[in-house]
Amino acid sequence: MKIKYKKKLGQNFLIDQNILDKIIDLSSINRNDNILEIGPGSGNLTSKILKKQPKKFVVVEKDENLIPILHKKFNKNINILNLDILKLNEKEIFNCKCKVFGNLPYNISTKILSKWILNLDEKPWFDEMYLMFQKEVAERIVSETNKKSYGRLSILAQWRLDCKKLFNIKPTSFFPVPKIESTLLKFTPKKEYLKIRNTKNLERITSMFFNQRRKKIKNVIKTLLSEDIINNQIKIDLNLRPQNLPPNFYYNIVKMIETF
Asked: In angstroms, rounded to a whole number, what is the distance separating the alpha carbons of residues 62 and 120?
């Protein structure tokens, strides 16, 4: 059955066998694992995962044209959901934690990650995620303070997750061949993190600061906190700029706003 690629869905299927094997080796799948794969495409990574004989295997594929291909290739060895991942409640798929794999469409990759982070319960529904992003986006996710790539996405991702770069993937490892490099990241939930009452506050605060990332933070701080709190509790130089401040600064600002 011939595959018709849909540009609007950001389809670039991973076909490099060496890269596929490398992902499997790094993830250490065993027979007790529940697996969730996002965007299996033609099932190249799916085949490799199946060889590890996981306990339960669910794939989510939005493209209805790929569903019969996946059914024919894997029969009843996997559970196939023809759904939009942005509308899926992942917590309802398994009754215990899972490992997640995904070659995420470039056009919605940050939306998917943000959705997962902002909706995480105190006990996450996954224990590991192995996700592919456009290289530039991956650099923003793992970025450290004072780097040009550091910003809202870095702060959001690093709030609840340990984010680790594994390796870059050349465009020729995909078909159709994209114009840019990709990067595989590993995510594991943090055991300790600053609890925030409303995650929308973190989105709002980081937006306020980084919409003016070239300006000194005192301009934003003064709109958020009283002069008394600023003088007694903000122990940093207010002449710094948003990219100069570590993620914990923003988490603590949110905490202050929710407390006072």
From this structure: 23
Q: Are 250 and 193 in contact (CB under 8 A)?
A: no
- Cα 211 to Cα 26: distance, rounded to the nearest angstrom: 37
User: What's 70's DSSP letter?
Assistant: H
Structure tokens at 112: 């998917």
What does the chain come to in residues? 260
Q: Could you write out the DSSP letters of every residue in 127-149?
A: EEEEEEEEHHHHHHHHPPTTSTT
- Tell me how many degrees the CA angle 145-149-122 measures, rounded to the nearest 5: 65
Q: In order of start, what are the domains of the chain with their CATH numbers? A: 7-189 (3.40.50.150), 199-259 (1.10.8.100)
Q: Which amino acid is at 162?
A: D
H/E segment holding residue 56:
strand 56-60
59: tokens are 């794939």
1-45 residue pLDDT tens:
455 555 544 568 899 999 999 999 999 899 999 999 999 998 999
Most distant CA pair in the chain, distance: 69
Gap between the Cα atoms of 160 and 6, Å rounded: 33
For residue 28, is it left (φ>0), alpha (ψ between -120 and 50) or beta?
Answer: left
pLDDT tens per residue, range 95-132 = 999 999 999 888 899 999 999 999 999 999 999 999 99
Q: How far apart are CA 101 and CA 103, in angstroms?
A: 7
Residues ≥6 apart with Cβ < 8 Å to 214: 241
